[in-house]
Protein: Oligopeptide transporter
Amino acid sequence: MSNGTDYDINAIVNKQFELDYDAYNELGRVNISTFFALSYGLSFATIAATISHVGLFYGKEIYQRFRVSRREDPDIHTKLMRTYEDIPAWWFYSLTVLSMAVALILCTVLIDQVQLPWWGLVFACGMSFVFTLPISIITATTNQAPGLNVISEYAMGLIRPGYPIANVCFKVYGYMSMSQAVAFLSDFKLGHYMKIPPRSMFVVQFVGTIVAGTINLSVAWWLLGSVENICHIEKLSANSPWTCPNDRVFFDASVIWGLVGPRRIFGPLGNYAAINYFFLIGAASPFVVYIFHRIFPDQKWILLINLPVLINATASMPPATAVNYNSWLLVGTIFNFFVFRYRKRWWQRYNYIFSAAMDAGVAFMAVLLYFALTMQNRSIVWWGTAGEHCPLAICPTAKGVDLGPDSVCPVF
Structure:
């Protein structure tokens, strides 16, 4: 809240997990940090810039490829892949019908629990379908995938405010459907170049999805029942690893977009209406790059300016902190600038392998630290585990709030 205290979410939720309007009006507006508001604004700009960028730089190519897709001469990779049996179309149709049927049953039979009506499910799938192509193009050309998480929450929050579970479900069907579609296409692209049989790819992906989903749900359920005070920061020890930063961001989003609704935060009833201008900024920014490209067609480096990627660079903040970004920036600058410029042969031979090794090393160390420290109730305390070292981040913003002589927070 504006006086520096935490907002009492439980006070504005009724027994049906819906917004209690009287309690909300009594408690007051929800305030979010400047950084959190800025991250949402950049998310608005990212999705708008994605549409503009793809339309300006790839629109003509998309149209031409769509027209000749049925009569275009196959390349060498396609010719080699024809030695394998193709995936029957009914595999995809059957899986689509089955998934939609289960989802529709969920949204009709369990409507009181999920709060999402059937038309919300159809709308989410339609949004996912529309955005899959432009986001896939950005992913294929830059290996960075803008997300639909914020825009899907925004849309459902406007249509059906006061229902947080409905907003979460809409986000899952809208955003995750698109995300999984892009990952599915990426895997098939890799299999296409590696000459892996398409049917084998399909079966492996299907089985892998079932296994991964089952294991993830089982582990999450086990952790919730076995780890005391999991995700409750105020009840955990200072160095506890069970703070759940990603889950807290997910919860905060359900409150902001689903329970309270965007009109009471980013609309005329909230404090952050100016954040909506990021939509306009994001949509207009690729036009600037495109105009300079048309004026200076010989300057090839202009085409390398990809504003959706640049704007989306902070998509993980939060839960990522400035410490994470500093380390990414340091490693990226060393290996993709200095090593690339002065030791290009090493970069060509080992940079990709080194990147994979670092990813594997992080995963290995996570498992090792869990068994070596967490299970033994031990922790390592040093400068790197003490957060961002910015005590002003939790200071109140309301005028006249004085936290006492021992506080570092200023009084406005």
About this structure: Residues 9-321 form one domain. The CA atoms of residues 54 and 134 lie 6 Å apart.
